[in-house]
Design goal:
about 350 residues, two-stranded parallel sheet, 15 helices
């Protein structure tokens, strides 16, 4: 069995634990250890990273092309509708190619997903040109974002691609923000809520839907991504809410810090709830989000309350000591895990 060095250590610790508990004897432990073959180089991870870098370079290249008016005129010297049709055909070609390769060579997961992702990029360009063609001066881009969300959702779900599913959820969040902004006349409030509160609700609903649809999402390998995006929307919105509250920016500048305390407490309660649920269910993602954003909450309050009234030498000295204590505690946990 081929394993990485990290996996070898885990397997060896497991076998040693079983031997000490009497599940297997020393001879059986030795026999099982001999079946391990350590990979000196993790080619699978290298493949994943290489495709990520390649896709990042492709994004930069396409972005540079779009920004270059001369090249755009040279390559796409057509009207908006014609450009949109050409870009749609290119994106469809990448989607068909990606799905065909998934059927023929399902083991080439990273290259197949990279091809589908190129279709996502050209779909975004198609929607941009389509929006330019249909622009009537209203400034309402929400329908295009919803259209993109549907396309990415179908491709990500059928292609079992967590990467493309992320773009579906990003487009969904953009649609929600744009549609509520347009409905409020691009003011600060929609139904009495500013943007942070809206996205707290959005993240909560997305997280609830993720758990309600857990089984089909797991079957398509997009449950973990959906849960992570729901938590990300929720906690980033709670963090911003704990700083600004339900106030417009102009009003917020004159608001006393004590008037925002209840939002900070809500932020802390949400993080604490995540940690508590993770201890009950052994959910590493919930534990990570809870601990991370609890720390962000504490340090944000620290900066808010003590930045102006504390000498900067003392301020950063206390900050350094607190971070060192956190690091020491994390190191202790890591060393216990290694043992």
């Amino acid at each position: 069995m081929k394993v990485t060095r990290k996996q070898e250590k885990i397997v060896q610790r497991t076998l040693e634990g079983w031997r000490q508990e009497g599940v297997i004897d020393a001879a059986e432990q030795q026999r099982l250890q001999q079946n391990l073959s350590v990979q000196l180089f993790d080619w699978q991870r290298m493949s994943r990273y290489a495709f990520w870098v390649a896709l990042a370079c492709a994004i930069i290249a396409i972005g540079s092309l779009v920004a270059d008016e001369y090249l755009m005129e040279l390559l796409f010297n057509f009207g908006y509708v014609t450009r949109a049709i050409i870009l749609l055909l290119i994106s469809l070609a990448f989607y068909f190619w990606g799905f065909y390769r998934q059927k023929q060579t399902p083991d080439k997961r990273y290259s197949n997903e990279a091809i589908l992702f190129l279709g996502v990029l050209f779909t975004a360009l198609f929607l941009w040109q389509l929006g330019m063609a249909l622009d009537n001066g209203s400034g309402n881009a929400a329908p295009l974002l919803l259209f993109g969300c549907v396309i990415y959702g179908v491709i990500g779900y059928l292609g079992r691609s967590g990467l493309i599913w992320i773009f579906c959820l990003l487009a969904l969040g953009s649609y929600f923000g744009t549609s509520t902004g347009y409905a409020s006349g691009w003011g600060a409030y929609w139904l009495g809520m500013n943007y942070p509160i809206r996205f707290v609700l959005f993240g909560g609903v997305l997280l609830a839907a993720c758990y309600l649809l857990k089984k089909p999402l797991q079957q398509r390998n997009v449950f973990a991504v959906s849960k992570a995006m729901g938590l990300l929307y929720l906690f980033i919105a709670l963090w911003i809410l704990s700083i600004f509250g339900n106030y417009d920016f102009d009003i917020w500048q004159s608001v006393r810090q004590i008037e925002l305390l209840h939002w900070s407490l809500l932020f802390a309660l949400a993080a604490g709830a995540c940690i508590w649920i993770s201890l009950k269910t052994d959910d590493g993602m919930l534990r990570g989000f809870g601990l991370t954003f609890l720390g962000i909450n504490l340090y944000t309050r620290y900066f808010e309350m003590f930045w102006d009234g504390t000498n900067k030498v003392i301020f950063f000295l206390l900050l350094a000591i607190s971070l060192a204590l956190v690091g020491r505690y994390a190191e202790k946990i890591w060393r216990l895990g290694e043992k």
